[in-house]
Every structure is written in C-alpha cells, then in structure tokens.
Amino acid sequence: MYQNTKVLITGVTGQDGSNMVRYLLKNTQCTIYGAIRRLSVSNHENIKDIEDTRFQLINLDILDQQSIFNNVKNIKPDYIINFAAQSFVAESWNTPIQTFTTNTLSVMYFLEAIRECNPQCRFYSAGSSEELGNVDYAPQDLHHPLKPRSPYGASKCAARHIVKVYRESYNIFAIHCILFNHEGTHRGKEFVTRKITSNIARIKKEIMHGEEIKPLELGNIYALRDWSDSEDFVEAIWTMLNQPHPREYILSSDETHTVKEFLDLACEYAGISEYLTWKVDEQNPLNTVLLYKDTVIVKINEQLYRPAEIEILYGDSAETRQTILWEPKVSFKQLVKKMVDWDLQLLSIMPS
C-alpha cells in the first residue's frame, strides 16, 4: 500500500516524528524523508534503532523559507507531516519570539511551497490543547473558544488559522489537529510525564543500592491533564491525512487525571509504593512532600509552576473518532506502566 508514495516528516527525531516513521515503515510501502536541520549535530537517539532503505534523512531548516521551498520542489512529497516545533510550554515564556517563528512561520513557509510547486501535496499541522486555554466548558471539543495562555499556545492558534486560510483560499489539502497531551517511551525528559518515570526509575535504583536519594522536584501536582499514547495518535493522524476531504480535528483520551495520579501510578509500577506516604500541607501546598519511609523523594518547587497555569485540560474527540473511524488502543494505566518499564530497563532493572 502507498507504493511510490513519498512522505516528508519534520521533527523526525522527536517523539511523534520518530513514532510516525516506525508506523509508516510497518504499515505502508512509503518512502520517508526525515527533515533534520543539521545532519551532523542533531540528536538521533529516537531514531537510532530505525534501519530501513525506505527512510532517509535530509537537510532542511524550517526557519529558512528557501530551504523548505527547495526540498518541496525537489522531492515533490505526496504528504508533509509537520511535527517540528518549540513544544515546551514553559520554555515559550523564555523564548516567545523564537517559539512563534518556529511554530507559525514555518507552517506558512510549507503552505507557500505547496501552493507554488506541489499543490497536490497533503499537509498536516500539529496543534495543541494549549490553544484552548482555560475552559469555558469541559470536556473541550473543536467548538471551544481559542483562549491561549502562553506564547506556545498563541503560536499554535496562529498556525491553525493559517492552515484554514490556505485550505479555503487555495483548495490545499491541509489539516490542523489539536493534540491533547500524548506521551510514550520516546518522550523528552523535560516533559513532566517522562520526568516522573525516569526519576522514579532512578529513585528505585538508589533504594535498591542503598544510595542517597535525590528528590524529584515537581510543580503543580494537582493540574489536570488529558494523556494519551503517542503511538495511538500517529495512527490517527495518518488516517486523517487519507480522508476524502481536509478539515480540523481534535485528539484526546477523553478523560483527565492529575499529575499526582500519574506519579502515584509510576511509584506503584516501579514497586516502591508500599513504603510511601504523602505529607500534605493544606495551608501551604509548597511544603507538601512524598516520603519513602522517612526520606523525601518528591517535593514541590514553586519555580516549576507556570505563569498563567491552565488548571484543567480535558478533551472531547468524539467527532474525530466518528469521522475517521478510529479508537485508541492504550489506556492511561497502560501508558504509565509502559513508560515506567522502559525507564527501569534503561537502568538495567527488571520491571515489576
């Protein structure tokens, strides 16, 4: 299936990009071009296991319009899947201009290249639940107002509108999908879920070897998030790209959990929950700690709270699921266990 089909993927060394490569190699006969800004210095950790003649890396700078144009013109891809982004919300407060340039202008560059030299190409733009901001109602569907509360969220809102303009004005098959939080074993350790599972695995090892335990520091552990599995999402995205008509979509698990719930499950699956006790300070939540016997293993760091924190993210993907006839395979608990098991194995610890 899809023999002689060419797919250009940006952000190929990230979680979603690398998972999309694996999905396409397994399920299609596509030739895949993975866009890397500088081949010699990029971090290839997430794709080092991929060895297939149908997958090749190319030099492409998403901040350089000419670089994008040349690659689109020369390769003539049938699909462009744009995962490349400055995707860390907290970092967007430190680098707002770079965040907007990376997440928004690059989308316009690709759409212009498609319009000028490859109008039959199908384009995917990765959106974010951060576009929605604080809830007017929950769960949040495609009709929820856009009220971003971070430079990152604003950059994704702008990309969504650009995609809509090009789709309606030039009849380009361009889709934008609001993605709620999605995780997995290839998630970066700067994100809270992987930060939790990698550090709980480390703490497990320190406990096993009788070493001094360095506490894990977290921000708002009561923030509610809607977590799914990245591998489920890439399957859905490919399905969207092969629908008869382009439109906007939303992907979510349609349930919500606190950071604390994720942490508690991670401790359980790591096999250290028996001797854990939460010491909760309701008067001053910053003093709340998680103890292993008498030792603090998790504490709250005020500096890890975000400006304009969104308290709840909770999606409604019913419309998307019905349109593309898709359902996720991995539950919240299965996701946490998969990530914990992975990080334990990286430290040569057998999962429980």
From TrEMBL:
Q: What cofactor does this chain's UniProt record say it requires?
A: NADP(+)
**InterPro entries, alphabetized:** GDP_Man_deHydtase, NAD(P)-bd_dom, NAD(P)-bd_dom_sf
What EC number(s) does its UniProt record assign?
A: 4.2.1.47
One GO MF term on file is: GDP-mannose 4,6-dehydratase activity
Residue ranges of domain NAD(P)-binding in the record: 8-339
One Pfam family here: GDP_Man_Dehyd
Q: Which GO terms describe its biological process?
A: GDP-mannose metabolic process
Sorted keywords for this record are: Lyase
Q: Which CDD domains match?
A: GDP_MD_SDR_e
| Keyword hit for Lyase | yes
PANTHER family per the record?
Answer: GDP-MANNOSE 4,6 DEHYDRATASE, GDP-MANNOSE 4,6-DEHYDRATASE
Q: Which family does it belong to?
A: Belongs to the NAD(P)-dependent epimerase/dehydratase family. GDP-mannose 4,6-dehydratase subfamily.
Q: What is this protein called?
A: GDP-mannose 4,6-dehydratase
* UniProt source species: viral metagenome
